[in-house]
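Hi C.,

You asked whether I'd gotten around to modeling the 281-residue construct. I have! Everything is below, sequence then structure, no commentary in between.
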Amino acid sequence: MAITENEWIIKQRKYYNPRSWQLVREGYAYRYAHRALPSQIHGVSIVVPENTLFFTKSGIEIHSRRYQGEMQMVGLYRPEMAAQAIRMGVYTLQALSAVQIVSNPFKIWSLLYQPIRTIKVWRKIQQDRHVFTNQQIQRFISILRIPANPRKVKKLTHGNLHGGNILVDYSNNELAIIDLEMMHIGNPVVDFAALWVTHYLASPPLAEQFLGNMEEVFPEYSKPGFIMEAYREIMIEAYLMLHKARRSGNVNFIHESENLIHEILNCPDPLQFLSCASNPK
């Protein structure tokens, strides 16, 4: 549960909640990110809001200082701000990638992140046989079998980097990265996929612009190896977004998530799926 008191946002979980331990890891992740992330990227200040971890009689709390910024995804829905919002997403990925990995402070979660994520999606697929054809379900299962990190990339990875977890203060040229429960050392394609889906759900052409900006900064993002990994991760992210939208009752996100999944599944060449999805017919 998250509650707000003045300038603090408070997450509370009971000790019997299996996810309560994630708050302990989040507290450590904030401290690690504060030390490791660069202070600026292209003149934009990178902020990790202050937080404090508390062990109470009933459970665990993490108090995070409220950052007075706008969610990056909000800017994508305003034509006059979309280009700036896209840049802020790219700068966030650059900041994470700039961290020099000397050791892995998240060893256990780094090992568990991808298996847990894959199993969660695998189990949910069985609930959606009324939404997708048997052929599409089998295609989806084959995508899950694509290796999650065949290049053995080791970068600081947020793990849940949708546009709601980047807060931007355009007037002060700052961005804040929040909600670090899933942070680990792993494959940055996970964060790229989450942000790509954010842009696609706002407007498919924005996803194309975001990809183009990313390829200018990271040329390897246009190579077949990366594209196959992105194919897997974007499908997983879109599927998790679909179930999140169903729980919240967001009809628009349900529709857009289903459309994205169909676009990817129906694209004949996986290496062309980004173009297929960004330019839906």
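If it helps when you're writing up: The chain is about 50% helix and 15% strand.

Thanks,
B.
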